[in-house]
Amino acid sequence: MYLVKLWPYANSPRVSQIYAGLYDLHAIGKIRLKLTFQLSKMPVQRLDDLLWLEVFDVEKKMKRLCFDLRDAGAVIDEEDLPLADAYFKRSYDHELVSRFSPELSRKILPFGLNYACRSRREHGFSRLFFHNVLLGNFSKKPLWACKNVFGYPLKQMCYRLNLLPADAAAQFVAEDFEVDPVAPSEDRIFFQTHCWSTKEAPNSGPEKLREVNRLRIGVIRLLKKAFGKRFVGGIVPSPYAEQECPDCILPYTGDKKYCLSMMQKSLIAVTTSGLHNSIGWKLGEYVAASRCIVTETLRYGIPVPLEENKNILSFESPEECVNACRRILDDPDFAAKMQKSNAEYYAREVKPSSLVYRCLDTAFNGK
Question: Does one domain contain both 252 and 115?
Answer without folding.
Answer: no
